[in-house]
Amino acid sequence: MSKRLRITVSHFVGWLADRRIPGFLRAPVYRIYARVTGADLTEVRPPLRAYASLSAFFVRRLIDGARPLPEDPAAVASPVDGTLQALGNVTEGSLLQAKGHAYEVRELLGGLGEQVDLKGATSWTIYLSPRDYHRIHAPVDCRMTAVRWIPGDRHSVQPKVLARRRVFPINERCVLLLESAHGPFFLVLVGALNVGRIRVLGVEPGRQGELAQPQSFARGEELARFEMGSTILLIAPRGQASPLPDFPQGTRILLGQSIGHWD
Question: Where in the sequence numbering do the catalytic residues fall?
Fold first, then answer.
């Protein structure tokens, strides 16, 4: 499939997902969706008929208490639901990713945060499937100080696609530079096939560079969302955070779950 066709298909799927579903059909449609994808309807904030379209359901909210934060204030709280695709360190300017592909970390970041030393940085790559909750939350108390949108392609980010193609540096993505008490870190939000919309709270799409008024977020507070599934990368400089031991690829992760420790 050509780049132009992939983008056209993504736009069409987005348009289709935005179509309003008659009220009496909403609950049955979302129950079918849940059976097909494995989404858990018991944690969705009711009522189902309140979600007027598939787009609205993709960014559904959860019932209170569905994603508790770790009791340890030094725990790195996962910013999303998803599956761990890769966990590793930045070596010689590269970020080793799923299926052994190496990515230049500066290329992934699109030039944002060039002043941050990333040699030896720790990175988590988490894939969001159609079953997952699609909102992205702060892994620690932080301030968003800069944003960069990077135009690109819309290849699928499913693991079987990543096994044969270097997708992350060529896909559309949004890079967030965040500051915490531990230092600066990054969230890279990677778009994918049928994921044409990445939203960041308080920031207009396409906004580039430093924010005139940095946005503050408490740990666990929503800061962005995908309007369907995709992938995020959490990148923390060396000495700032350590991953949990024995945390293999393919591990299922829930928002707020401890995935590491702030040093």
Answer: 81, 137, 230
